[in-house]
TrEMBL record:
Organism, scientific name: Vagococcus carniphilus
Protein's name according to its UniProt entry: OmpR/PhoB-type domain-containing protein
Gene Ontology terms: biological process: phosphorelay signal transduction system; regulation of DNA-templated transcription
The UniProt record lists the keyword Transcription regulation: yes
DNA-binding region of this protein: 174-278
Pfam family for this entry, one: Trans_reg_C
Molecular function GO terms recorded: DNA binding
Signal peptide as annotated in the record: none
Ranges where the OmpR/PhoB-type domain occurs: 174-278
Amino acid sequence: MQMNGMKIKGQLLVVNQEGLDDNSEKFVKTFDSSLLDVKFVNNRFFSETKISEKLKAVKGIILVVDVEKETTIETCATILNIRMLTNAPIWLKTSVAYTSIEREVFLNIGIDGFFYEGHSMKEIELTVLNLLKRMDSLKGTEDISSNKTASFSPMSAKSNIKKDRYNRNVHHYSNEKEVKEKVISISLDGETQTMIFDKTNVPLSNKQYQLAELFLENKNEIVGYETIYTTIWSGDYDIDKKNMVGSIVAQLRNKLERYQVQTKFIYNVPNKGYRFVVHEA
């Protein structure tokens, strides 16, 4: 299938523990090889040497899961392991649909979508290529805009800061390290649940938005693990919850990187939490 305007080049990894079966062979033939090279691997692939170099060519990953043989916890561990290595989109493909609770868990740790038995090969192809096309388009737009001088109005920023915290553009900040070369305005839009970096809109999940809001409310200050946990999930915090906090922070970082937000804002503070470093305009 040829899609006009598509310039995607790279690999689509299909992680299948059961090996290459008849359905998998049909799956390979469905994709236009001029756009994506479909490669089948198992989980051991992500433990290979020089894996970072091998993943540079990967545009997306489809994780095939046998729900009768693999528990939700095992699948989560696989997803987290892959997500630590790459920001490429990840889809889960199963024969049986997950429950809404399971889907929310997977989405919270970085899954981008689900494919089930009822999805045709063509549906999967279109879903994958459509997202990759948009990501390529966003990257191209970001590359162009990065060559332009950013405009910024201090009076406008101050005016917007005074608005209600849930209104559009409630928070306006700029990155401390970039301020001398390029001012990057940061805004939160509660109506669309997006984080805005100049003209780049980054859509966030509920929990990611809560975290972004918490970081901006405590900009340049250490936000502890317990504070993050009780803000997003409520309930009592203990050391076992630290992984949940680390996961949601990693999701926000990955989301910013995926939308080509090049500047680093979130910094680890060992044994304490995180700091969102910005310079208020």
